[in-house]
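haha ok so turns out i had the wrong file open the whole time. this is the CORRECT one, sorry everyone. sequence first:
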Amino acid sequence: MKTVAIVSTTGGAGRSTLTAQLASLLAARKHPALALECDPRNVLGFHFGMREIPDDGLGAYLDTASPDAWARAGQRSDDGVLFVPWGNGGGSGGAGLAQANAAPDWLRRLLAQVDLPPHGVALIDSAPWPSPYANQAISAADLVLVLAPAQPETCLTMRRLVDALATQGKAVRYVATRLQPARQLHADIVALLQAMLGQAMLPYHVHEDSGVAEALARSESFCRSTPHSQAAHDMNGLASWLSAWIDSAEQESQS
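then structure:
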């Protein structure tokens, strides 16, 4: 099993949306997929049809250190994705946050207990970096997928994350999101990011699409409900790249 952390330096980058859509698209490509929420906002579950925040979840593990608190919260979506929400435990303060800071590898140790085949994938939706939740996701990851929305704040905050990931020796790829190519500012920001990141920036820019929010309101998968939209095309391209990366990593581990 390979683990992919979905992170960003700003809010509104599309982390939860990309995590849910990529998990579904990879499951359709025959990769057993686990979507895991490491973010007390509890947004990821709503992309899989949840309407109430459960008591159990990853946060409950932090509060109780119960070995099965997070496993009890595991659910399976209609398209075969396993997902674990954050739940009501381990909020942004108190014991949960202290544990997240004190044990920098607890998420990696939990994921080591997951029994998915070598071509399986765990995708972690994290809170914005810097935060102990994003750090947990990065520590557990074989690949860090950094979302870079076409906003001025991204250019101001990205260098710190780039340098931090370099010191950790992590495999990293960057994806521009929320892109409106008709806006010159967005085109300029993407050009700046490409100059900064070079070949680490993937060519699958994810375009802004109002249909994403509409699909979420209807409890539908965006890529299934609007398969011919530009954003769905972008996400499918990114899923195909990740599928090839997983297969390549599996072959390397067997050689």
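The chain has one domain: 2-254.
again sry for the mixup
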